[in-house]
């Protein structure tokens, strides 16, 4: 029996955050395959490899060494091969500049890292089960930032 | 300027008068000369006429003498009577020649003379013929008588002719006398008139000069005063001036120009070279380059350079100049030199301070970033790990341990509130303030939604009148509503339904007790609650950052919320006031300018 997996990728330099992220998905009863990268360079190397399986949803931390989230976002949006990837910004900051910048550059949703594990689980469940087609077509600055 | 132009015109006027006067004097001289000549001529003519008359009379008397002599001889036959007859021939000739000479310019007299000569010859012929007849003793009485009678007729003709000539001479003299008198009669009047005109011209020239002189004197006085004022201004303003006469390439330096260089006024000769000696060697080339083309370009754009004063001090000078042309077309290059040393030092100081401020600002921004990211991150992890601990292992921890964990949790959440509030406060400070015409009703609605949970929890009632459209920074005004309503909800009385009334009205500043007395119009928006209120003496204190009226165990809070409100209102050039009545409630009043 073949199961349809949702491929999830996270690029975050923070080890704790990666741990919370994978823990949250393992506790959620959703068929997901999660892989993580320590920074933007590792992520782009993986994506640019034609043999790689492209994720359905990509979670991007903004503040990363070597190559930050915005740089990754710009590169991904320039490559047609990555058109189907839904991009969720996953950041500690909720500053207007960051929200504005990533929205303009084509990210699909903005998630502020929560300070509670249960909230994190709720958010991730919400994002994974989101109807992306519907969300993207009606996307505006008000619903870009995910509020829980 | 107009006055000086007039003076310039008057010099032309004076030149014209001078030339006219000279011409008139020459004219008078000419006329006088001519008249003296006429006078002299007329006296010559008069003399001549007398001479002619005398000579004519003499002529006739000679002829008479000859005749008388002959008659004597005829009667006495004495030869001695013939003496005058012989002499008279020569004398008549001499006399005739003289008359002829004197009247050679008169045609009438000449023709008269010709006839006279004819008659004289005739008479002399008759005389000599009668004498011959007598000497021959041919006493032919008839012939002799005939001869004598014809001689008498000839004599009469001579007499008439001479009378004619004398009359002609007299007429001539009369004519000349008349012409002379005519000339002489109008000459004095003419000379007198021209003299009068000259006198008038000279007088008016004198008056004009006198007038010009007084104008000049006045102008000179004004100039002297303004010169002195200029000198004072130069001393006070710390600048000097110089002039370059383009024609002869000479310089004049003002007194203060010397003082700026550390010298006494006019201590050395003004010239470009003597000035360049003071210029700092490093700036010399630059200054020479700048001044090289000034008299060609007619302009010296402002430039700054250094000089070394007599006492060795280095000063910064700024120079500039331009060409000035006066009414008579003389060109002078005028320039000023100001000592801008203090200015430059001050500017450097300000620049340094600005740089310091910029650095401080950058540090502050960096600090904000640290607060928003780096501080939040560990805090978030602490909270997340605690939440995991509570979820998974809470029951395995001892009771005191559980208490500690609860304390840790509340401390962490308090820290989060502090960080969030601080961030918000710094965000209201931000430089970019975009004003937009916004409906305040919709901002209030947004604020209500933001506080939805709290309003529901407290069961609060919020009433409001219609709010205006204003040119404001939308997110800040929304924050203002959130903070004020949040404040009212936080300090509500237990067991009493919180009632918050928001009212708005248009007012004029001078009608409000707390506003400056101007005619500016404001929107007054008040937020009134029925909460615990506060003592009026704290009305100003509550807006100060980190100032709290209550113990944090009683009411949680950071003391930032109302400070943010004040900041926001100040950003909008408005005013905020608080009024408190303990146990009755409080009123926060905001005034926002209409424009």
TrEMBL record, chain A:
Q: Which domain of life is it from?
A: Bacteria
| Sorted UniProt keywords | Phosphoprotein
Q: Which SMART domains match?
A: REC
> Is-annotated flag, keyword Nuclease?
no
* Chain positions found as 4-aspartylphosphate: 61
Name the InterPro entries for this protein: CheY-like_superfamily, Sig_transdc_resp-reg_receiver, TCS_response_regulator
Please report the stretch or stretches of sequence annotated as the Response regulatory domain: 7-128
Q: Which SUPFAM superfamilies match?
A: CheY-like
| Single Gene Ontology BP annotation | phosphorelay signal transduction system
What PANTHER family is this protein classified in? Answer: RESPONSE REGULATOR RCP1, RESPONSE REGULATOR RCP1-RELATED
The entry's protein name is: Transcriptional regulator
UniProtKB/TrEMBL annotation, chain B:
From which domain of life does this come?
Bacteria
Q: Which PANTHER family match?
A: PAC DOMAIN-CONTAINING PROTEIN (PTHR43304:SF1), PHYTOCHROME-LIKE PROTEIN CPH1 (PTHR43304)
Q: Which CDD domains match?
A: HisKA, HK9-like_sensor, PAS
What one GO molecular function would you report for this record? phosphorelay sensor kinase activity
Q: Where are the transmembrane segments?
A: 12-33, 186-207
Q: What class of enzyme is it?
A: transferase
Where the record annotates domain Histidine kinase, the positions are: 370-595
Keyword match Secreted: no
Presence of keyword Transmembrane:
yes
The name this protein carries in UniProt is histidine kinase
A Pfam short name: CHASE3
| Origin species | Flavobacterium aquatile LMG 4008 = ATCC 11947
Task: Cite the entry's keywords alphabetically.
Answer: Coiled coil, Kinase, Membrane, Phosphoprotein, Transferase, Transmembrane, Transmembrane helix
Listed EC numbers: 2.7.13.3
As its record notes, the protein acts as a catalyst of: ATP + protein L-histidine = ADP + protein N-phospho-L-histidine
Coiled-coil regions, chain positions:
437-464
């Amino acid at each position: 029996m073949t199961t349809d997996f949702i491929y999830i990728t996270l690029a975050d330099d923070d080890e704790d955050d990666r741990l919370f992220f994978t823990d949250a998905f393992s506790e959620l009863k959703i068929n997901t395959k999660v892989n993580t990268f320590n920074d933007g360079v590792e992520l782009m190397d993986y994506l640019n490899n034609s043999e790689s399986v492209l994720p359905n949803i990509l979670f991007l931390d903004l503040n990363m060494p070597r190559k930050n989230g915005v740089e990754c976002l710009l590169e991904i949006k320039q490559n047609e091969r990555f058109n189907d990837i839904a991009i969720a910004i996953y950041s500690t900051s909720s500053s207007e500049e960051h929200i504005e910048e990533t929205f303009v550059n084509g990210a699909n949703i903005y998630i502020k890292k929560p300070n509670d594990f249960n909230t994190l689980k709720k958010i991730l469940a919400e994002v994974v089960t989101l109807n992306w087609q519907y969300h993207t077509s009606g996307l505006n600055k008000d619903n870009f930032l995910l509020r829980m | 300027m107009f006055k000086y132009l007039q003076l310039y015109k008057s010099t032309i006027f004076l030149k014209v008068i001078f030339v006219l006067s000279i011409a008139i004097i020459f004219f008078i001289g000419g006329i006088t000369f001519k008249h003296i000549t006429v006078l002299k001529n007329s006296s010559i003519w008069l003399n001549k006429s007398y001479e002619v008359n005398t000579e004519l009379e003499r002529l006739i008397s000679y002829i008479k003498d000859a005749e008388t002599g002959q008659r004597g001889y005829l009667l006495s036959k004495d030869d001695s009577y013939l003496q005058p007859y012989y002499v008279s021939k020569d004398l008549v000739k001499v006399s005739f020649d003289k008359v002829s000479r004197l009247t050679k310019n008169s045609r009438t007299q000449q023709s008269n003379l010709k006839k006279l000569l004819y008659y004289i010859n005739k008479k002399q012929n008759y005389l000599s013929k009668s004498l011959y007849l007598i000497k021959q003793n041919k006493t032919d009485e008839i012939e002799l008588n005939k001869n004598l009678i014809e001689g008498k007729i000839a004599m009469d003709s001579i007499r008439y002719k001479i009378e004619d000539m004398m009359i002609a001479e007299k007429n001539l003299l009369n004519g000349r006398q008349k012409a002379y008198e005519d000339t002489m009669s109008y000459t004095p009047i003419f000379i007198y008139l021209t003299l009068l005109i000259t006198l008038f011209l000279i007088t008016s020239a004198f008056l004009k000069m006198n007038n010009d002189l007084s104008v000049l004197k006045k102008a000179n006085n004004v100039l002297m005063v303004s010169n002195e004022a200029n000198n004072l201004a130069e001393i006070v303003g710390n600048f000097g001036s110089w002039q370059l006469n383009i024609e002869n390439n000479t310089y004049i330096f003002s007194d203060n120009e010397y003082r700026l260089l550390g010298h006494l006024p006019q201590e050395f000769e003004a010239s470009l070279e003597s000035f360049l000696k003071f210029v700092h060697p490093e700036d010399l080339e630059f200054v020479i380059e700048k001044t090289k083309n000034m008299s060609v370009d007619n302009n010296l754009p402002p430039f700054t350079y250094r000089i070394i004063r007599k006492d060795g001090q280095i000063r910064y000078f700024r120079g500039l100049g331009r060409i000035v042309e006066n009414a008579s077309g003389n060109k002078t290059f005028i320039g000023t030199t100001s000592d801008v040393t203090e200015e430059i030092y001050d500017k450097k100081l300000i620049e340094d301070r600005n740089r310091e401020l910029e650095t401080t600002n950058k540090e502050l921004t960096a600090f904000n970033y640290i607060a928003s990211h780096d501080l939040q991150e560990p805090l978030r992890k602490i909270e997340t790990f605690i939440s995991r601990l509570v979820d998974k292992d809470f029951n395995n921890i001892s009771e005191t341990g559980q208490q500690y964990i609860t304390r840790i949790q509340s401390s962490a959440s308090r820290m989060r509130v502090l960080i969030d509030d601080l961030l918000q406060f710094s965000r209201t400070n931000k430089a970019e303030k975009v004003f937009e015409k916004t409906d305040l009703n919709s901002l209030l609605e947004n604020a209500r939604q933001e506080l939805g949970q709290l309003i529901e929890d407290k069961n609060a009632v919020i009433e409001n009148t219609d709010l205006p459209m204003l040119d404001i920074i939308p997110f800040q005004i929304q924050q203002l509503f959130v903070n004020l309503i949040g404040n009212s909800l936080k300090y509500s009385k237990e067991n009493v339904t919180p009632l918050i009334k928001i009212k708005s009205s248009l007012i004029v500043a001078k009608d409000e007790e707390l506003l400056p007395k101007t005619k500016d119009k404001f929107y007054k928006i008040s937020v009134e609650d029925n909460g615990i209120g506060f003592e009026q003496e704290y009305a100003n204190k509550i807006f100060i950052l980190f100032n709290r009226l209550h113990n944090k165990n009683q009411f949680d809070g950071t003391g930032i919320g109302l400070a943010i409100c004040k900041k926001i209102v100040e950003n909008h050039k408005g005013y905020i006031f608080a009024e408190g009545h303990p146990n009755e409630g409080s009123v926060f009043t905001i005034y926002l300018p209409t424009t």
